[in-house]
Amino acid sequence: MPLRIIRNDITRVKADAIVNAANSQLRAGGGVCGAIFAAAGEAELSQACRAIGYCPPGQAVITPGFQLPAKFVIHAVGPVWQGGQHGERELLANCYQAALELALAHRLRSIAFPLISTGIYGYPKAEALQVAIRVIGAFLLEHDMTVTLVVYDGASFAISEKLFSSIAAYIDDRYLDEHPDRRRYRQMESFELSESMAEPIDMMMSQVKASRSLDDLVKHPDETFSQMLLRLIDEKGLTDAVVYKRANIDRRHFSKIRGDIQYQAKKATALALAIALELNLDETRDLLARAGYALSRSSKMDIIIEYFLTEGNHNIFEINEALFAFDQPLLGA
Ligand code: APR
Questions:
Q1: Which pLDDT score is estimated for 177?
Q2: Which of 15, 99, 250, 299 could share a disulfide with 110, CB 3.0–4.6 Å?
């Protein structure tokens, strides 16, 4: 999966490079910086940093990883938060970009980032996360690399409060869990609704849906998941590379899907591809059905995806950011 988000200690992450939230003097500090120096071997890493000397905010430099499982450490200097009116956002974006470009220049295939500036430097976490996802997401639409965003503790991962509460309300309205009280409540609710407007509307909706699916079925009765996917890519005038990058899946995985008419896609892969194709909710249901799946009201993951589809937001990286915040599996490979 090109972009993963995990909870871990970054010094344990196996990647070609891990990124250090560094200071301009490149000295061993506290926070993630202290942990990286300690795990790499403080004397060796300090010596390598002294040889470089200085790195301005918004830039990045590279050293070996010494005792770390990662081969390299990319030291990226984030901005100190001063209220948000001092170019902090741009500097933070620049330092993610600089680290990614350095990894590219060294032909690295994988890189892991902490949430730069969100500790001692005081950058608000939700806003820093948005910057990270935006820069990494844009980079991954152009390049093949595996990027891991490493979150150290639950509290340090927050999506914007507005988005979180809007998704939470959406889930709350739709989620059918197995608790008997909740089911009874839902039954009562649907009973009240069916007495009034809900039934005719539901009937109308199911007729519209049925005719759409019928139409599709008549035109392409025996189409498999893989065939439907490839047809939609052609119809939308997209390239394979655009689709697999937007789906957060890697090239090899996509080649397997392309090469096997009977490919058995996992649900997360089918959903990721529906998002990459910018399908609406009904079209997503059709594509999922070809892989043998349906969107379920007893899956929080499905409801969150439904939320983004109805919002017309097909940015897989933002969707994964939200899935992670709600402890759900991420989309992609
Ligand atoms: N693994 C992953 N993430 C970690 C780890 C770890 N082992 N330890 C801390 N973090 C997280 C923090 O929870 C925070 O969200 O890294 C994020 C960045 O926090 P800091 O390390 O404080 O970095 P930053 O805010 O960029 O401040 C940089 O601190 O250590 C000094 O030398 C460094 O002066 C520089 C300043």
A1: 64
A2: 15
Q: Is any atom of ligand 1 closer than 6 Å to the C-beta of 11?
A: yes
Rg (CA), the chain: 23
pLDDT of residue 204: 41
**Is 114's C-beta closer than 6 angstroms to any atom of ligand 1?**
yes
Q: Is the CB of 120 under 6 A from ligand 1?
A: yes
Residues 241-278: tens digit of each pLDDT: 999 999 999 999 999 999 999 999 999 999 999 999 99
Using CA positions, which residue lies closest to atom 18 of ligand 1? 119
Q: Is 117 in the pocket of ligand 1 (CB under 6 A)?
A: yes
Q: Would the pLDDT of 132 be above 60?
A: yes
Average pLDDT over residues 30-41: 97
Q: Does the beta carbon of 61 sit less than 6 angstroms from any atom of ligand 1?
A: no
Does ligand 1 lie within 6 Å of residue 79's CB atom? no
Q: From 216, 221, 236, 225, select the one nearest 260 (Cα to Cα).
A: 225
Atom of ligand 1 nearest to the CA of 116: 26
Query: How far apart are alpha carbons 143 and 239 in whole angstroms?
Result: 15
pTM metric for this prediction: 0.81
Ligand 1 pocket test: pick from 11, 23, 32, 118 the residue with the most ligand atoms within 8 Å of its Cβ: 32
Average pLDDT over residues 211-223: 64
Q: Where are the domains of the chain?
A: 3-156, 161-325
% helix, strand, coil for the chain, step of 5 = 55, 10, 35
Residues 6+ apart with CB under 8 A from 93: 131, 134, 135
pLDDT (0 to 100) of residue 199: 37
Judge if the beta carbon of residue 41 lies within 6 A of ligand 1: no
- CATH superfamily assigned to domain 3-156: Leucine Aminopeptidase, subunit E, domain 1 (3.40.220.10)
